[in-house]
Amino acid sequence: MGLIYLDHQSATPLHPRVKEAMIRHIETIFGNPSSDHQVGHPAAQALDKARSQVAALINADPKEVVFTSGGTESVNHAIKGAAIGLREKGRHIITSNIEHKSVLNSLRTLRLLDYQVTSLDVDAQGLVDPGAVEKAVTPGTILISVMLANNEIGTIEPIAEIVQIAKKHKIVFHTDAVAAVGNIPVDVQELGVNLLSLAANQFYGPPGVGALYIRKGTPVWPLLDGGTQENKRRAGSENLIGIVGLGEAAALAQAGMPERQVRLRALKDRLEQGLKAKIPEIHINGHPTRNLPHLLSVSVEYVEGESLMLMLDDEGIVVATRSACASGSLRASHVLIGTGMDFATAQGTLVFTLGEENTAGQIDRVLEVMPGIVQTLREMSPLYKKSPG
Amino acid sequence: MVYSPIVLDHFKSPRNVGEIPDADGLGEVGNPVCGDMMSVYIKVEGDRIADIKFKTFGCGAAIAVSSMITELAKGKTLEEAMKIKNSDVAEALGGLPPNKLHCSNLGADALHSAIKNYLDRKAGKKVPTEEDREPHLKQKGEGCYCPYCEKKVEEESPFCIFCGSEMPHEHDH
Description:
The structure holds two protein chains of two kinds. By secondary structure, chain A is of the alpha/beta class. Chain A has 13 helices and 13 strands. Chain B has helices at residues 5-12, 60-73, 78-82, 86-92, 98-103, 107-122, and strands at residues 25-31, 36-45, 48-57, 144-145, 152-153. Chain A binds chain B through residues 105, 108, 111-112, 302-304, 306-307, 310-311, 314, 323-326, 328-332, 337, 343-344, 347, 379-383, 385, and chain B through 1, 11-12, 14, 17, 19, 28, 32-39, 55-63, 99-100, 103-104, 140, 154-157, 161, 169-172.
């Protein structure tokens, strides 16, 4: 059996039709969409098409879609842009403890500029309590940013409920939907959000390109200053090759989502049930029902995640770990710690993210190989002997 | 991060894994907060390490380091073994990634701790129990301080916003 890739959250392979669309674009169009001549016009048309495709995926007006260099830029733009745009109204921002680092570190920058940030605890399943959001609101609150789905444990947050609170107090709401868009249906009208971040590399598009949804009338200042591209929201010549790829990926995601969601959910259940049956003393993280259909986070007691990941890698099985050892910052995952997990258990966490090309046979191979690897590492672990049984 | 072929060999086929039930000395270092925990068991005959085994909770580097320290120490006199440094272990492994040098390279510390434990037992000193060992924990919310101007800075800051000094790579130690 060849490579079993179960880390789609880090990168999805480029869909063949996305690749075709990008190559066709490279071969036929090089103009600048801002140029009002016969070389610029086809580029402007390609840009418009991609914008409509992305807008359709999230049920937005194309005028409300701004292309960016990916999820991180979208989030930075939303948070810092709203903070600048609303600075006369107040300086207080509410978020949660389990946000992606692009959110947490954008807020770090704003704290340096004298904004105040309230970061809310989540429960053991990773849910933000809308009641706690309401309690945190002050007269100076200008922005609430809570992710749509968590990228480490897969929990889907009650965004529509929190938006009601934001609306009641006339506070702008941003959701980091990078882990969600393309994987589950996302509708900006249903959610009622003002701002929403998404990235192409989560749904078989290229890395380095994403979009920020800015609801009409939301006062978001540009992050990158310069010319008048993207309706004066994001300056700089567009990454049109990437944007064409994002547009095509969005169209494919929308068309294939009903079937893919059901198929991946079934594979994930197979993996979850199999692991629970075959490996004692493991924890499935996140919410039992409100979760992403393709993401399974598992904490394995007494072993460390990087070792587990390396041994699986050696068997051709590619997964992600949330152990401190494998992270650049050598810190245990703030998300897992945020759900109240102890450090040692957090260290033994693997994140499986399934994708289109995965099969039941591949899941069965993981179930065949992983129990032995866990046992080998447990027998090597000084923590294992200290546990009863 | 890429491990050297020697590291990968020792990680995949670790030498001397296990415990010695009637060990003469036991050394334990690290804790799961930092990501790594090593226990080293030694059996001493005369002044030599006749047998040595380890148990480790940790990343690939930590397991390879544990395996290598047992290989380096086996058959050595206690005096020779006390001279093995963490850097010798890293060198014998063909190098370790920079962020693992500090974090996972605890093999010599664990060995020295086991030898001290043996000498203490021999001298009739009370052997510290688990409760006596100082926990090596960093409390949640303790925060991060600039090592140069000692002001509190944001986590993962590229440089200190107060004095401009470049921040060293963060670590939970």
